[in-house]
Write a structure and sequence with these properties.
Strand content: 5-15%
Family: Belongs to the Fe(2+)-trafficking protein family.
Strand order of the largest sheet: 1-2
Structural class: mainly alpha
Keywords: Iron
Distance between the termini: 39 Å
Pfam families: Iron_traffic (PF04362)
Shape: globular
Protein name: Probable Fe(2+)-trafficking protein
Order of helices and strands: EEHHH
Number of strands: 2
Function: Could be a mediator in iron transactions between iron acquisition and iron-requiring processes, such as synthesis and/or repair of Fe-S clusters in biosynthetic enzymes.
């Protein structure tokens, strides 16, 4: 049976994550309070952040930026989009 959480992002009880996503306090908060559905939304947002900010895994500041964005995405008013971000054209 799936572990259920009251998802802070989506505002309803949903299956929780099966793993702690980061080895820090934020990772524990996400594990305790964020659903699998909200995590999937974060992964899409995360890809956009990496591309738009041109972040590199080799840069030590990358984790700091991603943790700040995750904090805002899950527990704040929502993450800031990069200033030059333009959504991709819709298909269809």
């Amino acid at each position: 049976m799936a572990r259920m959480v009251m998802c802070k992002k989506l505002g309803k009880e949903l299956p929780g994550l099966t793993f702690k996503p980061f080895p820090n306090e934020l990772g524990q908060r996400i594990y305790d309070n964020i659903s699998q559905d909200a995590w999937k939304l974060w992964l899409e947002h995360f890809k956009m952040i990496l591309n738009e900010y041109r972040l590199s895994a080799a840069d030590p500041r990358t984790n700091e930026i991603l943790f700040q964005q995750a904090e805002q995405f899950f527990f704040g008013e929502g993450a800031q989009l990069p200033p030059d971000y333009r959504p991709p054209p819709s298909k269809g």
